[in-house]
């Protein structure tokens, strides 16, 4: 023990270790994820669901919110309800949904991984639809760090909470344990016959023989995982929707990097093109700019983010 920090291995430092047991710390260190059962209350999850449905019915407009639709459904017809929506992204301006990012039961675990200065950087409510026969409800295996122009990776963590029972049948998360110990790999769109949803990049050349774990979860269960962990999800083979809510957190003393000349250049190019269409901004915008405006301080101090 070194005061407030526990150094387990040189590449991973746990902070405020009173919340985590030594077994939990070791499990995260070795596997890159940690599942906490029954963490978020049923009452909170039901409130998030009702807010999601209000947004889908277009009863409220949320500034900056990105509404994504499954390519197979969006091409057939537009239905202004939750059946067409596959994901809400960047809900930081919706007070009800953003409550998730500040829940004390979530933050006490986040603090263990990234320290007391906590920024909520990326928010999502995923509504995986029943597959329309094209397998487009799948999410390719990827590393979240591919999308982030900030470092260090060990000061970033995702909290992902099941809003209902999540199983292999309705497309639970699939993780490659221990893959977080590697480096950021090259990503691009997979060549899938039925098409692939916008921004769903996948790792090129990961080992398909690597052991994998299917994270089946109950309503309120929450998994925390490292941004280098290779993960994805299968298609939803049921008739219902599979909902989850998540937030990526970064330490307030993380720093931005220039992704030019790196494997992240392709995602910066795509993000700049989307920003240019949506907000009529020039080519001078960077990937860093798009993240800096989304980040929100939820605990402690915003130092360099």
UniProtKB/TrEMBL annotation:
Names of the cofactor(s): L-ascorbate; Fe cation; ATP
UniProt entry tagged with the keyword Zinc: no
Gene3D superfamilies cross-referenced by the UniProt entry: q2cbj1_9rhob like domain
EC nos: 1.14.11.18
Catalytic activity: hexanoyl-CoA + 2-oxoglutarate + O2 = 2-hydroxyhexanoyl-CoA + succinate + CO2; 3-methyldodecanoyl-CoA + 2-oxoglutarate + O2 = 2-hydroxy-3-methyldodecanoyl-CoA + succinate + CO2; octadecanoyl-CoA + 2-oxoglutarate + O2 = 2-hydroxyoctadecanoyl-CoA + succinate + CO2; tetradecanoyl-CoA + 2-oxoglutarate + O2 = 2-hydroxytetradecanoyl-CoA + succinate + CO2
SUPFAM superfamilies registered for this protein in UniProt: Clavaminate synthase-like (SSF51197)
InterPro entries, sorted: PhyH, Phytyl_CoA_dOase-like
GO process annotations (BP): fatty acid alpha-oxidation
Keywords: Dioxygenase, Iron, Metal-binding, Oxidoreductase, Vitamin C
Associated pathway: Lipid metabolism; fatty acid metabolism
GO MF term set: L-ascorbic acid binding; metal ion binding; phytanoyl-CoA dioxygenase activity
GO cellular component: peroxisome
PANTHER family, alphabetized: PHYTANOYL-COA ALPHA-HYDROXYLASE, PHYTANOYL-COA DIOXYGENASE, PEROXISOMAL
Family as reported in the entry's similarity comment: Belongs to the PhyH family.
Protein name: Phytanoyl-CoA dioxygenase, peroxisomal
Biological source species: Amphilophus citrinellus (Midas cichlid)
């Amino acid at each position: 023990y070194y005061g407030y920090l526990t150094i387990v291995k040189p590449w991973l430092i746990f902070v405020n270790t009173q919340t985590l047991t030594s077994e939990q710390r070791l499990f995260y260190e070795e596997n890159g994820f940690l599942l906490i059962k029954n963490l978020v209350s049923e009452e909170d999850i039901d409130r998030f669901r009702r807010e999601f449905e209000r947004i889908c019915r277009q009863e409220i407009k949320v500034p900056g919110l990105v509404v994504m639709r499954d390519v197979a459904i969006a091409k057939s017809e537009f239905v202004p309800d939750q059946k067409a929506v596959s994901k809400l992204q960047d809900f930081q301006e919706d007070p009800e949904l953003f409550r998730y990012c500040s829940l004390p039961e979530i933050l006490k675990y986040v603090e263990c991984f990234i320290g007391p200065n906590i920024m909520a950087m990326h928010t999502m409510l995923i509504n995986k639809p029943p597959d329309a026969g094209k397998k487009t409800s799948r999410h390719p295996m990827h590393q979240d760090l591919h999308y982030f122009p900030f470092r260090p990776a060990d000061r970033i963590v995702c909290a992902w909470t099941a809003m209902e029972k999540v199983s292999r049948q309705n497309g639970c998360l699939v993780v490659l344990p221990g893959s977080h110990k590697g480096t950021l790999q090259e990503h691009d769109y997979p060549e899938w016959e039925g098409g692939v949803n916008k921004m769903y990049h996948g790792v090129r050349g990961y080992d398909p023989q690597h052991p994998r774990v299917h994270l089946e979860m109950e309503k309120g269960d929450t998994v925390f995982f490292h941004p280098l962990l290779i993960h994805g999800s299968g298609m939803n083979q049921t008739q219902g929707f599979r909902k989850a809510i998540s937030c990526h957190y970064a330490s307030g003393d993380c720093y931005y990097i220039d992704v030019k000349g790196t494997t992240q250049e392709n995602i910066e190019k795509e993000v700049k093109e989307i920003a240019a269409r949506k907000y009529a901004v020039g080519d001078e915008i960077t990937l860093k700019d798009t993240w800096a405006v989304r980040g929100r301080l939820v605990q402690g101090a915003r130092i360099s983010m």
